[in-house]
UniProtKB/TrEMBL annotation, chain A:
Keywords: Membrane, Transmembrane, Transmembrane helix. Its main location: membrane. GO terms for cellular component: membrane. It comes from Actinomadura rudentiformis. It is a multi-pass membrane protein. Residues 120-355 form the ABC transmembrane type-2 domain. It comes from the Bacteria. The chain crosses the membrane at residues 207-229, 241-267, 279-301, 330-352. It is found in: Membrane. This is ABC transporter permease. One of its GO terms (molecular function) is ABC-type transporter activity. The lineage of its organism: Bacteria, Bacillati, Actinomycetota, Actinomycetes, Streptosporangiales.
Length: 357, 322
């Protein structure tokens, strides 16, 4: 009856119990992925929406611009035609269109609403440049100066780049803490622990099984997150040292498990364990930077965030997966996470009880 | 300086004999006590169990049966007293002893969402038992058809069988069963009794607790009657009943015999008639039956001897209520 055989069969029992628990599957696997899809989708395509412009009757410069450069123009504004001037102005007034443009002799008149000044300012800028271009074209000479616009953010700061590691961190934290605390409390209250105590299986086999199953689940979570975020819709781009996220994830899971084991060893009932787990995981997810970047957060909040193990995991993963830092950049975070694991394990061992009473 | 008459290092002949006897018993319990706050759950319990014996601890709820059993199994530490199981102390957790004993706990404890087969294989593998042997055990307890059913969906009787199978899967010498038939319907209880007898015939020692008098009478070689943390009486069920000198009860259908006439019969102690049957309580049943035969009043007669219930009443002055 080797320890290894016990460990193997307990791991299998734990894994099967998890796989058949629809609630656990949903909350550890599907739920975080839903967040990824929603956050990645909502904030991922955050290009400013196109300006809606109504053209009243004939506007020569606009027609020329469209004929000449239709595709480019279509990217920044959508132009609809219309002859009814009153209806067009009404639409602008009500905010259904950003501007209405008409031609009076050689003047191009643009009607806009002061309600959305950013939008109307943008359209005004576009219209001015169109008129300007037309004027230059009339002179028959090529323009002397050109302006090339370039956005400072490149692809790597798209929302998905932030949310993939951060939401993964949250998913791992919640699966790890929940998994450990629930196993411990359920196994104790259901008498499985005392039954195991009557078998020759060493305690290390029980804990070892939980750790290995949790690491397996975590790596599956990670694979799913990356697979989905790399779909063309989301377009995640990984930096060279992204693989360093694997040891980060493993040490993160160890830290979360040890927190869960402390809760599980301390809590008397499943409800108590669940409540305390929520009270720890949710604030940790918010303040540990899983739902919004902490870069712009006030100093005290940033300082506070370092109380949570999740902060180190998130930071480490962002560094190697997105910011392009080298593999060794993750070592401090791994060290801290392993330290937390060790401290938690010591406390959990002290608090551990086989029996409900 | 050593005292001149020091006995250190020498074992007195009495102690040596006692140690020898302890080794000979499968279980030896001496002066066991356990308190929970003000409750004396176990209050000075001593007994021995022989190898191959079917030993019962009988008593109402709260008598201290489970606590006694759990101390012997090594799940709890006694406040006072000594326990030896197969020659070894069960506390603290003794991993050379554990493979030799099998335990069915009062509250069945299964891994969640595993099937009966997976459950048994998991427990088996903790003892190094191969999967095929675990499957065979499933057949032994009559759960072959339920192998792929998740434990949450088993009936009470099936769960109880599985729980017993988990206690037996590693073929232990000594088996503890804590109220294995509680909460089962009469048919399921009888089926389980057959199984328990089978287990015992293999030469295993069984210690069983129950609050059913009939169960103890039918199954056990010896019974310890327990109440309020103490053992009141210990012996083979038949001997306990006989030793009691309990009255026999003779009953016939109402109307065959008038109550006054019945009372006048030689040997009759008390008589009662509930309208359905007339019951005569007597310490000399043969005299009463002979007299009734003379009056031709024996139609449908039933004679009940004393039971463990009477023993309990005699010992505690209380009606037995499980
Ligand atoms: N863990 C415990 N904590 C406090 N009291 C307990 C505990 N276990 C048992 N008791 C008390 O000890 C007494 C004996 O209980 P138990 O051994 O379970 O009896 P039985 O198994 O005969 O029903 C009861 O009064 C019970 O309430
Ligand atoms: Mg009990």
């Amino acid at each position: 009856m080797s320890t290894f055989a016990s460990f193997k069969s307990l791991s299998r029992a734990m894994y099967l119990g998890f796989r058949r628990d629809k609630g656990a599957l949903f909350f550890t696997i599907v739920f975080p992925l839903m967040f990824l899809v929603i956050f990645g989708g909502v904030f991922g395509n955050q290009t400013t929406s196109k300006a809606k412009v109504i053209q009243i009757g004939r506007v020569t410069v606009l027609d020329q611009a469209r004929a000449h450069d239709g595709a480019e123009l279509g990217k920044i504004m959508s132009i609809t035609g219309g002859t009814d001037r009153a209806a067009a102005l009404k639409k602008v007034r009500e905010g259904d269109a950003d501007a209405a443009v008409e031609q009076r002799g050689d003047s191009v008149v643009m009607h806009y609403s002061a309600a959305d000044q950013v939008k109307s300012g943008t359209v005004r800028g576009y219209m001015e440049s169109i008129v300007q271009t037309a004027n230059i074209a009339v002179t028959g000479r090529p323009p002397t100066y050109r302006m090339v616009p370039e956005q400072v953010e490149d692809d790597s700061t798209k929302a998905i780049q932030f949310f993939t590691p951060s939401l993964l961190g949250w998913a791992l934290a919640s699966a790890g803490v929940f998994g450990a605390s629930q196993t411990l409390v359920t196994w104790r209250t259901k008498g499985i622990l005392r039954r195991l105590r009557l078998s020759p299986a060493p305690i290390s086999a029980v804990f070892g099984a939980r750790v290995v199953v949790s690491i397996g689940i975590a790596l599956a979570q990670m694979a799913l997150f990356l697979a989905i975020a790399r779909l063309p819709v989301f377009g995640l781009k990984l930096q060279d040292s992204w693989w360093m996220a694997i040891p980060l994830v493993v040490s993160g899971v160890l830290a979360f498990l040890s927190i869960g084991m402390v809760i599980g060893a301390w809590a008397k009932t499943q409800e108590a364990a669940q409540t305390v787990t929520q009270l720890i995981v949710l604030p940790m997810a918010f303040l540990g930077g899983s739902f919004f970047p902490l870069d712009g957060a006030p100093g005290w909040l940033q300082a506070l965030s370092y109380v949570f193990p999740l902060r180190y995991l998130n930071e480490g993963m962002l560094n190697v997966m997105m910011r392009g830092l080298g593999p060794s950049s993750a070592l401090p975070q791994i060290g801290i996470l392993l330290g937390i694991s060790l401290a938690g394990a010591v406390v959990a061992t002290r608090l551990f009880r086989w029996d409900a009473a | 300086m050593e005292k001149p008459n020091s006995t250190r290092g020498r074992v007195s002949p009495g102690l040596a004999l006692r140690n020898f006897l302890i080794m000979a018993y499968t279980i030896s319990v001496d002066g066991l006590r356990k308190r929970y706050g003000d409750v004396r759950a176990v209050d000075g319990v001593s007994f021995d169990v022989h190898q191959g014996e079917f030993f019962g601890i009988l008593g109402p709820n709260g008598a201290g049966k489970t606590t006694t059993l759990e101390i012997i199994e090594g799940l709890r530490e006694a406040d006072e007293g000594t326990v030896t199981v197969l020659g070894l102390p069960p506390w603290p957790r003794n991993s050379t002893l554990l493979p030799r004993i099998g335990v069915q706990l009062q509250a069945s404890s299964f891994f969640e969402r595993l099937t009966a087969r997976e459950q048994l294989q998991t427990f088996g593998s903790l003892y190094g038992v191969p999967a095929e042997k675990a499957d065979a055990m499933l057949e032994t307890v009559g759960l072959g058809e339920k192998a792929d059913v998740q434990v949450e969906k088993l009936s009470g009787g099936q769960a109880q069988r599985l729980s017993i199978a988990c206690a037996l899967v590693h073929d232990p010498e000594l088996v503890f069963l804590d109220e294995p038939t509680a909460a089962l319907d009469p048919q399921a209880r009888r089926n389980l009794w057959d199984l328990l007898r089978e287990i015992n015939t293999g030469g295993r020692t069984i210690v069983l607790t129950t609050h059913h008098m009939d169960e103890a009478e039918v199954l056990c070689d010896r019974v310890a009657i327990m109440d309020r943390g103490r053992i009141l009486q210990l012996g083979p069920p038949a001997a306990l009943v006989r030793g009691l000198d309990a009255p026999a009860r003779i009953s016939v259908a109402s109307g065959l015999l008038a109550e006054e006439d019945a009372r006048a019969l030689p040997g009759a102690d008390t008589v009662s008639d509930d309208g359905v049957s007339l019951t005569i309580s007597t310490r000399d049943p043969s005299a009463v039956v002979a007299a009734m035969a003379a009056k031709d009043a024996l139609a449908g007669v039933q004679i009940h001897g004393g039971t463990l219930e009477d023993v309990f009443l005699e010992l505690t002055g209380r009606e037995y209520r499980a």
